[in-house]
């Protein structure tokens, strides 16, 4: 970025335009006069030309009568002083403005010559950031003082969203945007931290127009003994008891020999909607997509935009003239929404050539379904479909959870199954799967909004071994996680993934890390379900929340 010190266009003096009204500021001679401006101007104009005419007549008479010009009368002396006074006023009123406007025009013309030489390259840089910015030709502010830039942002001269690109310093941009926001809203952001965060890591990736970051504490629970391996699970939450309760569940599972898990399906989905002139034409495309002989052609089109996206299948649904096509594909270790969307675009382009009368309405027709509770995700699955189970021994139930298998089975039937059915729950046949899913998602950089479908879970409990032990399982059909891309690349979230041993992409087996993360999520939900249900059964729920989830501290007075 060009850092030569030169004034921005916004800071250059602009030529004055004629105006009938005086400016509120400025060093004009008329500012000292109490009379209205138009009256003052008329007075001094009249005075100047009157005394000038009077003096010319007097000097003509002196020349005719051979009287020396330096010999003046009192009236002539008063006329000379009036002429000088009126001339000073008129020069101050009109001359200074003319000189200033002349200098401003000359200065701007000089800088415009520089802009013509550098403008094309500068415009290309702006276009790379946002085409709309180049339309404004934003002032180059990289060399201006922070206070000046804040004023320009407040006035709207510089768009707040363009500060990072213009300054070349992400943290400085955040600081300036933050100060401008406080001045505009007249609200303090003192409690919102600024320092201690790498703002360059989120540029054009995670968050636009940042002004700080929110602190969420990260606790650890574990070890989770899952499939003969131990994991320490990071959980980011502001709700007391969640980490402690999950940790107790881990303790009980560990003491009973651990849990086992299985990934049933692994496929991210995207479902565009297209429209035809008639329902029969929409059905014709549906039959084409359902025909197994056409799958490879579709797969070739879908797969060409990624080394990891591999089309698994297409599920179609008709609604009148509209056709919804739910594409499912593997996405490696990425959560995969962008990957599957690119593949769908490839297929739509191919189908458009085959069906010219097809009108593409939307790349997403909500048949996917993303970030919304939907029966299709509950039934067909989305992302990773996992099941996790464990057998909790009788002595562990008594010692760790202070309850019995029969009590838990009855409670699960009445609460998680019958109670959820009475409520008309969709995928919510559990005690609090969402608590654990959200905490792990935030800690590991997943999309928190996908907690909606990722928390779909049915918790099953059954007494085994003559009714002494408890078999508990959770089935979660749509855990949407990834270990690369998005928020997983941020330092804090990356550290949490590293703690679990699933940081980045698996080099040996693409997709292995994201599938393991889904298993860990399911195992953690299993522990959370077990502990909470035991707390309810033994009457410890209210007591534990009063102990760990009730604060008497006035946090509004606590500094960051």
TrEMBL record:
<dbReference type="InterPro" id="IPR002202">
    <property type="entry name" value="HMG_CoA_Rdtase"/>
</dbReference>
<dbReference type="GO" id="GO:0005778">
    <property type="term" value="C:peroxisomal membrane"/>
</dbReference>
<dbReference type="GO" id="GO:0016126">
    <property type="term" value="P:sterol biosynthetic process"/>
</dbReference>
<dbReference type="InterPro" id="IPR023282">
    <property type="entry name" value="HMG_CoA_Rdtase_N"/>
</dbReference>
<keyword id="KW-0472">Membrane</keyword>
<dbReference type="InterPro" id="IPR023076">
    <property type="entry name" value="HMG_CoA_Rdtase_CS"/>
</dbReference>
<dbReference type="GO" id="GO:0008299">
    <property type="term" value="P:isoprenoid biosynthetic process"/>
</dbReference>
<keyword id="KW-0560">Oxidoreductase</keyword>
<keyword id="KW-0812">Transmembrane</keyword>
<keyword id="KW-0521">NADP</keyword>
<comment type="pathway">
    <text>Metabolic intermediate biosynthesis; (R)-mevalonate biosynthesis; (R)-mevalonate from acetyl-CoA: step 3/3.</text>
</comment>
<dbReference type="GO" id="GO:0005789">
    <property type="term" value="C:endoplasmic reticulum membrane"/>
</dbReference>
<dbReference type="InterPro" id="IPR004554">
    <property type="entry name" value="HMG_CoA_Rdtase_eu_arc"/>
</dbReference>
<keyword id="KW-0256">Endoplasmic reticulum</keyword>
<keyword id="KW-1133">Transmembrane helix</keyword>
<dbReference type="GO" id="GO:0015936">
    <property type="term" value="P:coenzyme A metabolic process"/>
</dbReference>
<protein>
    <recommendedName>
        <fullName>3-hydroxy-3-methylglutaryl coenzyme A reductase</fullName>
        <ecNumber>1.1.1.34</ecNumber>
    </recommendedName>
</protein>
<dbReference type="InterPro" id="IPR023074">
    <property type="entry name" value="HMG_CoA_Rdtase_cat_sf"/>
</dbReference>
<feature type="transmembrane region" description="Helical">
    <location>
        <begin position="37"/>
        <end position="56"/>
    </location>
</feature>
<feature type="transmembrane region" description="Helical">
    <location>
        <begin position="77"/>
        <end position="96"/>
    </location>
</feature>
<dbReference type="Pfam" id="PF00368">
    <property type="entry name" value="HMG-CoA_red"/>
</dbReference>
<feature type="region of interest" description="Disordered">
    <location>
        <begin position="1"/>
        <end position="27"/>
    </location>
</feature>
<comment type="similarity">
    <text>Belongs to the HMG-CoA reductase family.</text>
</comment>
<dbReference type="GO" id="GO:0004420">
    <property type="term" value="F:hydroxymethylglutaryl-CoA reductase (NADPH) activity"/>
</dbReference>
<keyword id="KW-0325">Glycoprotein</keyword>
<keyword id="KW-0414">Isoprene biosynthesis</keyword>
<dbReference type="InterPro" id="IPR009029">
    <property type="entry name" value="HMG_CoA_Rdtase_sub-bd_dom_sf"/>
</dbReference>
<dbReference type="InterPro" id="IPR009023">
    <property type="entry name" value="HMG_CoA_Rdtase_NAD(P)-bd_sf"/>
</dbReference>
